Amino acid sequence: MIDMQFTLAAREWLLGASVVMFAVVFAAILASHWHHHKHAQAHFHTSSLTEMAWSVAPMVMVFVTGLAGISSVFSF
Q1: Which end of the chain has fewer CB within 10 Å, C or N?
Q2: Alpha-carbon distance 18 to 21, whole Å?
């Protein structure tokens, strides 16, 4: 049978790796939007706020779901 301490340590490590990956992907998406908006032609699109909202909204959903996962590992 697998040791419970090992299982908890593995969960904490995977959770930490997921948080780092989330932060990297989130930063990359925002940076790509910013870079695209800076170098796009003026007539291509008019609302960068709408573009950012389409990217930020799913990231917020993932973050909130992650909070539920964190609460199962750590008790606040």
Answers
A1: N
A2: 5
